[in-house]
C-alpha cells in the first residue's frame, strides 16, 4: 500500500534559539527566505517544505535547502518515491516525476470558479494506485492515472462543496465536510456514512495514536471512540485560546506522532506533547509561536512556525511547566 507522508518544514540554519528552548530546538534557514512554512513532507531521503511562494527541498535532513518556485501558495504535498504531488491555493495540483526538479500541472477534470481559479487543495492522499485530492469548496476528487485525469467523488454528496480535510484510517476514508460534520467511506469515496458531529471546528490535521484517530482544529483536539460512535476531547493541560487573555479553546494547527507520543502545534503557544496514560498535555517548547506543521522524520521532530523552521531531537523533548490557565480547567467551571 502506498501512503502519503505529511510533514512540515521551515527555515534552515544551525542557529540555537535563546528563549528557553536553547537546549532542545535548532532553528534552520540555510538556503531559505524568511517565509512561513505551512506544509512538510518526507520521501526518498528528501524533505519538502511548502511556503507561501514555493517549495523548498533538502537532501541532508534539513541542514540546507534549495528552492523550486511556484506562482502560488503551496498548501499540500505528498511524496511517493521520486513522484511528488503539490497542491496550491488557486492553481490546482502539480506533479514532479524527478523528486521536485521539474513540475507539470495535472488538473484535467478539476472544477474551477467563475474567475478561472481552482479551489484550495487541502490534502493529498496516495492510496494504492489512486490519488485522493481534497479541494476546499470544490469537492473531493480521485485519480487512477497519477493525476492526469480526475473524477469528482462528491457530486451526489449533500454539501459536497464544503469538504475541508481527509484522512485514511482503519479501512475508511474520513472526510471533514464542514465546521462540525464528518463522513467516512469504506469504498474509497464512492459511498459515505455520516458520523456524529464534533466540536473542534474545521479539521486542520489528523493523527493516529495507539490505533485511535485524533483530529486537530480551531477549537482543540478530538478523538474518535469507535465503541460509542462519538467524539472525545482530551484537552487537559492545553493552554486556553491563542492569547493570554483568551477564554476560547486552543487552536491546534498540526499533529505528529513519534515513538508512541502525540505532538501538537498550537496557534501562539508552540508545541505540546500528549501523555496517553493520563490523557494530559505538556509544553515542549517554541512558546509564543504559531506552529503550522509538524513532521516526525528519523530521530527528530521538525516544526514549521511563523518565524521559520525548527528541529529537535525527540529524546530531548520533555514536558516542562504548565499554562497559567488551561482550557480543560476553564471549561469545568462553565455550567
The radius of gyration over CA amounts to 19 Å
Mean pLDDT: 82
Q: Into which percent range does the helicity of residues fall?
A: under 10%
How large is the count of helical segments?
Answer: 1
Helix/strand class: mainly beta
Characterize the main sheet. 5 strands, antiparallel
Classify the beta-strand content into a percent band: 35-45%
Low-pLDDT windows of residues: 1-20, 321-335
Order of helices and strands: EEEEEEEEEEEEEEEEEEEEEEEEEEEEEH
Widest beta sheet: strand line-up: 1-2-29-28-27
N-C termini distance: 48 Å
Q: How many β-strands, per DSSP?
A: 29
Structure characterization notes:
Helix content is 2%, strand content 44%. The protein is globular. The chain has one helix at residues 327-332, and strands at residues 15-16, 25-28, 37-43, 46-51, 54-58, 66-69, 74-80, 83-88, 93-96, 104-105, 120-127, 130-136, 139-143, 151-152, 165-169, 172-176, 182-185, 193-194, 203-209, 212-217, 220-225, 230-232, 252-258, 261-266, 270-275, 280-283, 291-297, 300-305, 308-313. The strands form 7 sheets. It has a 5-stranded antiparallel β-sheet, with no helix packed on it. A 4-stranded antiparallel β-sheet has the order 3-4-5-6, with no helix packed on it. By secondary structure, it is an all-beta fold. The model is unreliable at 1-20 and 321-335 (pLDDT under 50). The chain has 1 helix and 29 strands.
